[in-house]
Design brief:
This protein is of the alpha/beta class. Helices cover 39% and strands 11% of the residues.
Length: 219
């Protein structure tokens, strides 16, 4: 469970805080005593795939998936051999309607991460079958610090805040420096009530990136 060295360097002050040691002890004990997702070596996968200097878009999720072999360290993403979850199905539908792109036959979003999309869950671990089981253990403080570091030290990043939880988590982002896109959550409950479809976040992100001379994301 090792954080990428460059990110580790950038987050030195945060990582030296007492809560991080408590969090680490809690998580390591959990891995030793029960089934935890994602696998230990993939806890920080979002940071491994997307270096700080390369971050162009930040998508904020809440918890890793808690079903067998689903979670692999990227929010909304699942391993290729796993059925596509309902929220991601709706994300793909919106991309299809927004950009006319064909829907993939799998839910692995590594291709986005490699292009500079930080797929960040607020909580980075979860006990099998127990949604939210690792909330309020310290992960949220850590990921808040990550978001703030990006918001403070970079310019021209697209933040996609889907649902009330993500909006609250991104509430301190300077909207004069970054593009902040907000909508309902892509989960069926929210999407089917009209709070997700038609947000056009993916075309809006690319229009913005192009305008500031950054390479667009191939969604």
């Amino acid at each position: 469970m090792k954080l990428n060295p460059k990110w580790k360097e950038l987050l030195t002050d945060e990582l030296s805080k007492p809560y991080v040691k408590e969090l680490q002890n809690f998580v390591l004990h959990a891995y030793e005593t029960t089934t935890i997702y994602p696998p230990k070596e993939q806890v920080f996968a979002a940071f491994d795939y997307c270096a700080f200097d390369d971050v162009k878009v930040v998508i904020i999720g809440q918890d890793p998936y808690h079903g067998y072999d689903q979670a692999h360290g990227l929010c909304f993403s699942v391993n290729e051999n796993i059925p596509i979850p309902p929220s991601l199905i709706n994300i793909y539908k919106e991309i299809n309607e927004d950009l006319g792109k064909e829907t993939p036959n799998h839910g692995n979003l590594e291709r986005w991460a490699k292009q500079g999309v930080l797929l960040l869950n607020a909580t980075l671990t979860v006990e099998a079958g127990k949604a939210g089981s690792h909330q309020r253990k310290g992960w949220e403080k850590f990921t808040d610090a990550v978001i703030q570091k990006i918001a403070n030290e970079k310019e021209g990043v697209v933040f996609m805040l889907w649902g009330g939880y993500a909006k609250k988590k991104g509430s301190k982002i300077d909207k004069t420096k970054h593009l902040v896109l907000e909508s309902g959550h892509p989960s069926p409950l929210s999407a089917n009530r009209g709070f997700w479809f038609g947000n056009k976040h993916f075309s809006k992100a690319n229009t913005y990136l192009k305008k500031i001379d950054k390479k667009e994301i191939d969604w």
